[in-house]
Amino acid sequence: MTERSFQPVRIAVLTVSDTRTLETDKSGDVLAERIAKAGHGVADRMILRDDRAAISEQLRRWSDDPLVQVIISTGGTGLTGRDVTVEAHRDVYEKEIEAFASVFAMVSTRTVGTSAIQSRATGGIRNGTFLFALPGSSGACKDAWDEILVQQLDSRNAPCNLVEIMPRLTER
pTM of the prediction? Predict the structure, then answer.
C-alpha cells in the first residue's frame, strides 16, 4: 500500500462573541495553536459579534477566498436568543455535513455528559470550503479538534479524510 503524504490546509478561525477580544479569546487560541501544531496554517483569524448577517457575510468572504480551505467558528451554537452562528452557517451551506453534529455529540457526551444536548455544532460545505461551527468553550474546541478535525483534516488518515475529497467538492 502506498503511504500517503501530509498536505497542510489553510484554516480561518472565527470567534463569535459580544465580549471577547483577541487577548481574551481562549477558544480561538486553542484552535490556532492546535492548527499550527498539526502542521496546518491559520489563514486568518477574526472576532465578530453575535450578528447573523455579519457572520454569514464573513463565511461567504472566506469561502470565496482560494487561500482558505476550511473555516472553523467558535461560539454562538447554543440555545439562547443571541446564539445565531448555526443559522448563519446554514445560510451559506451548499451541503450540510449532518454526521459532524452526531459525532461531535458523541465526543462531547464523554466530557460534559448530557449537557451535550445544548450544543448545535454543525458542519457544511460552500464553494469547495469546509465550514465547522463549534461551541464557544475551549473544552469543546479541544474535543472537536482532538477527536474529529485533526484526523479528518490529515491527508494521511485512513480509510478516508476530508482533505482527499477537497479537489472534488466543486464537481458538477
Answer: 0.96
